[in-house]
Design goal:
Length: 486
């Protein structure tokens, strides 16, 4: 049946309703519904669309990002520059800032000494230690021959600065060709009561009565053995005893003590305070025990019979007892299980300077087969202040009355004179010996004077405590300048 073209009236329970209004409502609702649907869809689109960023805001954001980049890059450059400056021994901060700061923070000189050792040790572990850059010794102008080795320069650091062999490598990094550690004794001993180290700042000098405080030869042997074993492992020579022995026998191509080409490690040994100096056999056993334990890890063994702070020790410099002691030490050193044996030197006092005393020491050195002499040590004398006529401050005048060995620039002339005398004595006997000069050397000019007097190496200690980590570098620079004048 065909669909009707007109709408019939709606009937509900017999009542007729017109449909025209219904159609109109239907159309209207349909249109409104469509409008609602479009509006609702538009709202959804609007809510998901990315808002437009004004150009000014974009430019500001770019500028801020660039500023942060520049700041961070600048910070990195500043830190990097600071690192290279502070870790360079040529930096004046070591002498003019750090040294006075340490003196201010640590009024007690021994506390300052301990803090300095700890700082160097920890900084070395982190790679933040001061060191020579540009390898100034590579020009070969300061090379010198010592015990058949070609040393990179003739400057050394004396014993006492590194008493327990805690920092030989950080000290080598400062530029010397010789580092002396110790002195050590067979058994641990505390040394003298504190306070025992005193400054005379106006004189760049010190008085100390440490009394050979030591952790003992066994402790130092463990420290040095570990150093050699770490080196052996790091350089592919193996571990434990096998690697250690290969390095000690020279397979690494470097001296077995220093482990560095052109450098030597000296180990200073002494007797215990409680060993009676009248019992020469017991004293000799003390020295020989130290040699047995430490000589395998040393290029040079230094026999200390000249400390003024151990009662009776300087009495061992008499020809008879000294000859017996040195013979025992030389025999022990030559018996070390190593292809190249350590050389033996004796450290003598600047106060034993009479002809009879010098002759006796030279006799003992010659008769025992010792290889050389270190001239000298601290002195019991109290030299006049420098410059001549200078009046010490009241506090330093009081310090000057303290018991102990004096060290500082005032010892220089005495050291050079004594070096010359020992050189002449050995030469006259037809048995020249290697001589190291130690005492009062603070400048390159003084170092050259000591070398001209007959020393092969000029050693420093007190000069470093006042001059800081850059002292060796400065002295070597001055030494080059002195030689260029000739």
């Amino acid at each position: 049946m065909a669909a009707s073209s007109t709408l019939r009236p709606l009937r509900l329970r017999g009542v007729a309703f017109p449909t025209s209004g219904l159609v109109s409502c239907q159309r209207t609702c349909s249109v409104r519904g469509n409008n609602w649907s479009l509006w609702h869809s538009g709202k959804r689109l609007a809510s998901t669309a990315t808002p437009m960023t004004p150009p000014a805001a974009t430019a500001k954001r770019t500028k801020n990002a660039f500023g942060k980049y520049v700041f961070r890059a600048s910070l990195v450059l500043v830190l990097l520059g600071g690192y290279f400056y502070v870790t360079d021994t040529r930096a004046s901060v070591h002498r003019y800032v750090i040294v006075p700061l340490v003196r201010w923070v640590y009024p007690d000189a021994e506390d300052a000494h301990h803090a300095g050792v700890v700082a160097l040790k920890e900084l070395y572990k982190l790679g933040l230690h001061p060191r020579e850059r540009d390898t100034p010794d590579r020009d070969g102008k300061l090379e010198t021959q010592v015990f058949g080795y070609t040393l990179s320069n003739p400057i050394g650091i004396s014993g006492g600065l590194d008493k327990h062999a805690d920092i030989p490598d950080p000290l080598f990094a400062l530029g010397p060709a010789v580092v002396e550690v110790g002195g050590t004794t067979p058994l641990p001993q505390d040394g003298n009561p504190k306070p025992r180290v005193f400054r005379l700042v106006s004189q760049a000098a010190m008085i100390n009565r440490y009394g050979l405080n030591s952790k003992g030869a066994d402790h130092m042997a463990e420290v040095l053995q570990k150093r050699v074993r770490d080196f052996a492992f790091a350089h592919g020579f193996g571990e434990h005893d096998a690697g250690e022995q290969r390095v000690l026998n020279g397979e690494a191509g470097v001296p077995p003590g220093s482990l560095l080409d052109g450098k030597l490690l000296a180990v200073q040994v002494a007797k215990n305070k409680l060993t009676p100096e009248s019992d020469i056999a017991a004293v000799t056993r003390d020295y020989v025990y130290c040699v047995d334990r430490l000589a395998p890890y040393a290029d040079i063994v230094v026999v200390n019979v000249s400390s003024p702070n151990t009662p009776g020790l300087r009495g061992l410099q008499a020809a008879g007892p000294l000859t017996e002691i040195l013979k025992g030490v030389v025999g022990a050193a030559r018996g070390i299980d190593r292809k190249s044996k350590p050389f033996v030197m004796v450290k003598v006092s600047p106060d034993e300077d009479s002809d009879e005393q010098v002759d006796g020491i030279c006799h003992a050195v010659r008769e025992s087969g010792v290889d050389g002499v270190i001239v000298g040590n601290t002195t019991n004398h109290r030299p006049s202040p420098l410059p001549k006529g200078y009046v010490l401050p009241i506090k330093e005048q009081q310090t000057l009355t303290e018991t102990g060995g004096y060290s500082g620039p005032q010892l220089f002339e005495r050291t050079v004179a004594l070096v010359s005398r020992y050189k002449d004595k050995f030469a006259a006997e037809g048995s020249p010996k290697t001589i190291f000069a130690s005492g009062g050397i603070t400048t390159g000019k003084q170092a050259q004077a000591a070398l001209d007097a007959g020393a092969s190496v000029a050693m420093m200690y007190t000069a470093i405590t006042y001059g800081g980590s850059g002292t060796v570098t400065r002295v070597k620079k001055e030494l080059r300048e002195e030689r260029e004048k000739k």
